[in-house]
Amino acid sequence: MGSLTQSSKRSITGEDISSLKSLLSSTNATVLTPQDEAYGTSIKRWSSAAQKPAGVVVVPTNADEVASVVKYATDHGIDLAVKGGGHSTAGVSSTDGGLLIDLNSKMRHVDVDLDKKLFIIQGGAAWGDVDQAGVKHGLATVGGTVADTGVGGLTLGGGYGWLSGQKGLAIDNLVECTIVLATGEIKKASEQENPDLFWALQGAGQNFGVVTEFVLKAYDQGDVFAGMLIYPPTPEIIEKVVAATNDLYTPDANGKTKVAGRGAGGIAFARPPPAEGKVMLMAVIIYFGTEAEAKEKYKALYDIGPVVDTTAMVSYPVINTILAPPIGLRASMKGTSFTMPIRAGFVEDVLREYTKFTDGNDDTGISLVLWEVYDPNQVVAHDEVGSFANRGWHLNGMICPIWTKQEHDQACRQWARDMTALFKTELEAQAKTTGTGVDGGVGLRGKKGATMLYGNYDQYDEKSRDIFGENYPRLQQLKARYDPTNMFNKLFGVTPLA
């Protein structure tokens, strides 16, 4: 079973629309059809290539309304999709002709419990909502590195963020979920209540229901030193930037890095606006400390002489906007992986391929290739938390073609595949154990037998067993208990155990 699962459920009929309107007539939920003005907003996605025409949209305001809709879809075998942030570039928050539950429109409130230091987050919130609620109280949590990413999708798939070097994944900071099951039952899941379901939600959560509320730990957080250093991508500069990055982020024999969990960021190729269309090398810096500390820690990168320097002390929400591409274009965020140290020659190989691709198609100019770097110590330390099977000392790469015209869909996705194959070849050259073909994907194999690829990024060819590894059989058992008819099957679907 691949990352995108073909649904055997049916589409919406006119009779369904009438039934849903009747079912929800005494509630505050809204039923939208293609004729309604608000329908277009509900089916809109971060990537327009992931947008599909739902047969009907229901915009709920609470968990009870969600429960009524989910039960109706289950009882009638209707294809069901759930929109949290709508950020999935794989289209898994959309349905072609089925029933869409849009949590994002009216269920995105964030409460802050200052006494317990907790965020109570509705299922349709984006990370920007959490960031803004937290900064008022000097608080933050591990969340998406792009503010318009939905809390739900990112958390249920594991959840890397700029704070992962200090606090692990989002699921390592998850305290409780309120979830609507396929039957319409509403359950709480935590370490104390329904712990098996809670374990499943921590990494494979998109398979088990609609989470209408997340409770996450909150931490004291002040301003952060962050921004980008931009350089012309000459071989000499590439070698120096890669050497400085390796020095900061390569773990020593004891698993310690020089940034000690306080630094994160990456190196990337892009054509940023200040460069007027030229390909540039970017070093992204996120440092949880003072400006003086950061300037000393990253001195080698400053000494290279960037042509643009946007680094400054900023409020926490700002760091989750630094790498945010425009909303509404066509895009794919294809995941790959790499290990430290990075080889400068490989970075030059990627530069050649990026330049050839973007030079050859003027519709792809704001595409991006990114090596994400951080200190993975805390992610590895929480190895037994949840069903997420992809922890390790590897780091995430992202191939992000961005374009505007539908006729370029196939070429852009193929380029992303070709680039991930290049990353795989590099891993093999380092004598790392990678997957093979569709069964193994293009990432490292970890100790839990999973491919070391981040499931929240697009993985076109990987199977669910690749992503969940040795956790897959237990997930199948839980799937049989909580979703035996496989209503929730859009992304890395888990087949219920017969």
TrEMBL record:
Domain FAD-binding PCMH-type: 49-221
Record carries keyword Flavoprotein: yes
GO molecular function: FAD binding; oxidoreductase activity
Flavoprotein is among the record's keywords: yes
Superkingdom in the source lineage: Eukaryota
Cofactor requirement: FAD
Keyword terms of this UniProt record: FAD, Flavoprotein, Oxidoreductase
Pfam families the record matches: BBE, FAD_binding_4
Protein's recorded name: FAD-binding PCMH-type domain-containing protein
Taxon lineage: Eukaryota, Fungi, Dikarya, Ascomycota, Pezizomycotina
